[in-house]
Amino acid sequence: MKTLVVFYSLGGYTKYISEILAKELEADILELKTKNVYPQSGFKKFFFGGKSVIFKEEPELTNEKIDLKPYENIIIGTPVWAGKYAAPFNTFIKQYSFEGKNVAVFACHIGGGADKCLRLIKKALKNNHFIGQTDFVNPLMKNKEKNLRKAINWARSLTF
Ligand SMILES: Cc1cc2nc3c(=O)[nH]c(=O)nc-3n(C[C@H](O)[C@H](O)[C@H](O)COP(=O)(O)O)c2cc1C
């Protein structure tokens, strides 16, 4: 069974967890990249990222088209943006079908909105089989080791 970890990460937290999961699950990994890069610091980071989710933007991705057919299992990782999933997933979800896949989702955040974000992303993905969800609070900043163990344990708990 092939597994793919797909993530978007502006500040590196979701990337950190995604890499742990991919290693533990011996999965392929895909980092979504946008053509127009979001500002990475200060007010602009929150303004442009926030605007992007509020207006349901579909930022152009620079990733090559990927064939999801060989993957039975897909893990999706997103930062929480204004209580939602990051806008690059608007584009990704529109481009790809998740039908018949085993899907697990996780979110990184600073303390609010993860449940709503995960609920929304699950709603946006259609006709698949959800096998798990979890979240991490800024995992590189706080409790890095604890979050590493949490990610490994979560990966091991997923029954595909
Ligand atoms: C535009 C924007 C909106 C955010 N909104 C929230 C939020 O609603 N709740 C929250 O807990 N964190 C929020 N955050 C913080 C990020 O979710 C958090 O720092 C996350 O760990 C970043 O992951 P990354 O480093 O992979 O980008 C927001 C960050 C950005 C840039």
From TrEMBL:
Q: Where is the Flavodoxin-like domain?
A: 3-159
GO MF annotations in UniProt: FMN binding; oxidoreductase activity, acting on NAD(P)H
Q: What is this protein called?
A: Flavodoxin
The organism named in the record is Anaerocolumna sedimenticola
